[in-house]
Amino acid sequence: MTRAVALPRVGLGGGPLGNYLHPVSDAQAEAVMDTAWGAGVRYFDTAPFYGLGLSEQRMGRALRGRPRSEFILSTKVGRVVRPGPGDNGGFAVPGDRHIEWDFSRDGVLRSVSESLDRLGLDRVDILFIHDPDRHWPQALDEAYAALAELRSQGVVRWIGVGMNQSPMLVDFVKHTDLDLLLAANQVTLLRRTAFAELLPLCLDRGIPVIAASLFHRGVLATDRPPEDAPAEAHTYAAACVRHGVPLPAAALQFPLRHPAVTTVLVGAHAPGHVTANLQSLAHPIPGALWDELS
To answer: Which positions are annotated as active-site residues?
Structure first.
């Protein structure tokens, strides 16, 4: 039996604050957080993987002075930050630390403790198992069991899984008692793999879905996709022009048309991105455009 989850319609994704794709200064990261807060954003998502702890540090620094009862914060388990050179996940950070996969019970508990230290907070609201694609048995038997225990103890309110693929999310829904899911790159204009089985299953079981990675690394972030973008992106862009709708507005609002999706998660490298994304979410879209895009 899932516990009632109440999430805002939009949340701020923490990947860019971990220097995803390109570096962001501490001051700019703080400005992003301040702009989001000032605009009414109250859900924030991060992970140890994002900047190898940097995103958690920056989000925590910005949130520590805010009333704790006024925001929802999620982070993830499955990747732990360790000292020394190695895999940095493609984030623009110094090479003095690296990421290791760890879905063991001890690894999960250690990850949560280290996340709280980096955040400088006494709790998070949501814990996600992060990208367990190649670790199904251990993620199910150990990571999920550890999160369920933390939930039963009141350490965390809600638990879920965040992935870039639908089949394993379906398996998690069928074999566990999750509160919510984070579905990246699968409830979007360009990739709709979650619509066939995952979203109907979540709707039937009352499991809310957070949709993420909606711009496909910037392909849908402007009205004119890059020349080498998939043909569908150019088709959708042309349709948006015909209906007088910005392509980013259609990209951000599309997942919310499905009743299983309650929230979209959008990152921002700069304060202006926060403002533009919120404007896109509020832009009116005629039904004729949705008919065409569908």
So the answer is: 50
